[in-house]
Amino acid sequence: FYRRGSVENSILEDCDRFFFTETPFLLLHRKLGRWIAPQMPFAFVNGASLWFCDWRPDSHEKRSTCGESCDKGLNSGNKSKTDTLVFLHGFTANRSTWGYEEGGCAWLLANDERFCRRGNVYRIIMIEARGAGRSRAAPGPYTIKQQASDVLALATHLDLDPFIFCGHSMGGGVGWHLMCTAPERLCRVVLLAPIPSGGIPNVPAEQQGSRTHVLQHFGWLPVPSFDDALERGKIVTEGRPRETDHWLRDRADAVSSCPEEYWVEGWASIVNFRIPAPVDSIKTPVLMIAGASDGLLKANIRDYLQLQIGTLCVLAEAGHETAHHDPLGTASAIHAFARGSTFAMQSHVQTIMDRLKKRGLPPPAKL
Strands, E, within the chain: which ranges? Predict the structure, then answer.
């Protein structure tokens, strides 16, 4: 039996290049009363072989790909619907960022009955960017722009349009880029502790020139061997219950296995990132999730206040590894956002102003 997030799953993944193709072979198992068809192939897109997993709810009913807000005409007479969530991790990370294992954020959205009631399910796709995780052998460039291009190419390959994109940290930069360059491909966007829309300022130029300087900026040891990365991770951990030895070892493995070119090009892309269009011109609905103890919190709030259709969620128990620190809180926020049960401050204020104007009433002094 195939169980996502289990030891059996990890063993099978080691053979995924050999036993999984991109379409024909599916392993089915019964979970919470639903048949799930997990796929874990490598897709060859934009000249690179990229790892992704595809957790799909298998049903006899015809379901739309993009959810209630985007499926008019596609799902007439059928109340069931599926939202497709595409998850991308941050710098030097992997699929564990979003909770690939049992109890994680993505796992909860795919399996937990609180989020997967009858007629309300998710298709979960997690990507490991070129240079990271199981895609570490893929050639560069390792930039935010290239990652955005890879996401769109994979979405086209899987016929996902439109979809909900969820990006963490550097992956959040990919979200910014997609909203400005390909908004028609998106239903909504979730930015989890994203890099600021204007990049990371005040970083000396010499810190962009070598892997050692990048590591020094992050507080890692000069040589990122697995043992060094693990020891440093234990030093800087905030002692949260979910920061287990298993997680620290997985994070150390992810950090120490990225190629040097990825470190240099990826970090330079983060530092020099500039959103292609003004934040206040973005019309895609955005959920900004931030950790209360994350150093990017202030920058995230500044960006949120400029969004036309933006919703903010600050998780009190989380830092920068937000989805890992509070998987249930993150999953709950994404679920509410995907279902359309959240409110965007700017659009809500505008609605109130329009109602007052229609009734011939003056606007309040402050709103």
Answer: 29-31, 34-39, 42-45, 48-58, 81-88, 120-127, 163-168, 186-192, 286-291, 310-315
